[in-house]
Every structure is written in C-alpha cells, then in structure tokens.
Amino acid sequence: GVVRLCAGEGMPRGDLAEQQRHARRVAQSVTVDKNPPKRGTRAIDRVVLHPVAGPLILAALLFVMFQAVFSLAVYPADVIAGGFAWLQDAVRATMPDGILRSLITDGVIAGIGAVIVFLPQILILFAFILVLEASGYMVRAAFLMDRLMAGVGLSGRAFIPLLSSFACAIPGIMATRTIEDPKDRLTTILIAPLMTCSARLPVYAVIIAAFIPARTVGPGIGLQGLVLFALYGAGIFGALGAALLLRRTVTRGPVQGFMMEMPKYQWPRPRDLALGLWQRAYIFLRRAGTIIAVTTIVLWALLSFPRAPDGSAKSQVDQSIAGRIADGLAPIVAPIGFNRDIALALIPAMAAREVAVSALATVNAIDTPDEGRRDQSLAKSLSAKWSLPTALAFLAWFVFAPQCISTIAVVRRETNGWKWPGFMLAYLFGLAYIAAGLTFWAATVAGL
Prior knowledge:
The chain is mostly helical. It has a domain at 1-30. It has helices at 16-30, 39-48, 53-71, 74-94, 99-116, 119-135, 137-151, 159-164, 169-174, 182-191, 200-211, 223-247, 270-304, 316-319, 321-333, 340-346, 355-367, 371-374, 378-385, 388-400, 405-415, 419-445; strands at residues 216-218, 221-222. Strand 1 and strand 2 (221-222) form a beta hairpin. Helix 6 packs antiparallel against helix 13. The chain is globular, with a radius of gyration of 25 Å. The termini are far apart.
C-alpha cells in the first residue's frame, strides 16, 4: 500500500531526539530491507555499540595501539638509527674536517636521520587506523562519539574531519566542507589542530624515550605507551573543552542531528593496507626530503655562523646567529621552563612539527665538540641536558601549539580571511603557554 505523511502529522514538537526516534519508527514501518544485516553483524554491534561496553572497547583498542607504537618499533628504529650513524661515520672518514663535512654530518644526516628514525612508529600507528577503517569499526566509533560530541555542542558530522586530523590537520580541515551548519563547521576547523597528528609523534617519541623509563606498570602495560596514550587523550579532551567554550561563545548556535549508515564488518584487504601504508611512508619521507631538509640546512647555517674564534669561552651555538635569536626568546620562554635548545627548535618547527626533532639534533651535533659523544642518540643527549619538568613542559606545549604554517594557510583559505586563523593562533598558543607553564611548575613543586 501507499503511506501518506502530511507535514507535521504525528510529529512531536520541540525535542530533536524525540523527533529522530519518531522518524526512525515511521521509516521502519514503511521500509522493506531486501538485504538485512547478517546475524553476526547484529551480534557484534550489540556489543561494540553498547552504551557502556562500546566506549570501553574503543578505549582498549586505542590503548593497545599506543602500546604497540613503542613495543613493536624498537628493533626497526634501532636499525634505521644504526644506518644513519654508519653513514655519519663514513662521511667523517672520507671527508676532511671543515664546513662542508659539518653541513653533511651535523646538518643533513643528523637532522633528517633524527626524524626518519620514527618512521616505524608512524607506520604502526597508521596500520592500526587503516585496519579499523577497513573493517567497518571506525564508523561505529563515530556513532559512539556522537553523544559525547553533542554534549560539547558538536554534531556527529564533525567526527570524521577530526578523525582525519589524526593523520594531518590539513585534510581534516578540508573535510569540514561536508558540515552544513557554518558555526559547527567553524568550530571543527578551530579545534582540528588539537588532534594529535602524525607530525607530533616524533616529538613525543624522542622525549618519552629520553625521560620515561622503558618499564611495565602492569601486565603488558608499558609506561612509555601509557604516557603516549595520555598525550593523545590530552589532545582529544583539550579539543572537546575548546569546542564547549567556543560553542557557548563565539560560535554559539543550535546542534544539528546526525544520521549515518553502518557498513557491514569485513576483513581488511592486505593490498589496500599495504597501499595505505606506502602512501603514509611516501608522504613522511617526502616531507623529510623537502621541508625538513631545507629547514635543517637553514638552521645549520644559522648555528654555524659566525664562527666562534679558537679558544673562545663561548660555544659555537652561543656565538651563532641562532644562539643570539634564542637569547632574545629566553625571557619569554624561561618562565615555562624552556631552555635555549627549545627556544631554538620552536621557530623552525613552525614549518612542520617534526622539524623540532631535527632542530634539536642539529643543535646537539654542533654544540657537542666531542665526536664520540655526538654519536649517542638524541634521546640520551637530551636526558643528560634537560630536567624532567622541562621535558614534560615541552610535551604539554606540543599538545596544544599550532606549530604548522601549512595548517594556518588552509584555515585562512577555508574561512576566507585572516580573522579566524589569527584567533586560532592566539588561543592555541595561549593554551600551549599556560599548559606548559602549569606542567613545569607542578612537576617542579612535586620534586620530579
């Protein structure tokens, strides 16, 4: 038969959730599904979409993922680090001491190698994400997050752009074009940089390796993976908190409903996973060969000139242009526990967050006259020079700081002006400064 629905007939007024439930009841009464979901899919969904068990399963999956990032990447990372160390030794053995050798060993190899060594961790992270996406679980995760996101004033449509921002904020921001409500879209754009993108992972990994002991705190629970999990969680909850404030102030507006179709569960295709990992590796290595390489060479030049006179009490870094720039930044960053090395790393890191690691490696290489000590890992060098409160403050800074010029440019394009990029920079750098300062002083008072 034919069902006629008149406008407003039987439709409850007011509550959006009640209207959605009524719409589902009407749809179920007039729809015949020729391809009903399989019994197995329904059984799995009863568990993974359960209001209590579902979020716990999601948290457990993320926890396992971050544990694997550290535990499975140890051997391949050591192999890559050993390869770059061998390359440095080979260059030193075949080239005479001088500016060119310093450029190659202390600039290019030390800087780029310090970043590429984290490629295994990035690939492990994305292997988990790709499996969750291909299996059909990621859409369920969006469904689980819808209630939480509605609580801070966002619709479920914001989940996919924010999820994309875990890879890179740029495609995540561009994906907000699917959000119809302009204020909802603007809010999502403004909080997307708080999602922990892959560029942050090298920064987190080197600091965690330097200052967090590689020990377990429970059966199969590594402390380093636990800290990484906490950093990702801090970014997520920071984004939700920012969204809550924005939706009640500058982007105030009603929350729209969200409907989605649940795909069937399926086994991920190995070819698709391999292709996805290859694409991520290519993107990462291309950045290492372009943005990171160029930035590292520029930083090396700023650190190498003017040359410190023989017998000078000043180190080469103190004598250099970069050292003088760092001295100018010191009064600004000293209250939050940052040292000269960090001040030097923050400026080139605006090109890309992972440049902070290559910058620290370049500073360490030039500032260490003993070539034997240069060959020790960056993590060991930092652990000997930094205090734990400073390291924790550095991590807190990178949870919030919008250290990416490309992201800023995309926000300007998507919002048609500099008003909202300027607002985003101000509030995120403000959050980063406050978070780093609170972390440093809390850790100092606690005697860490």
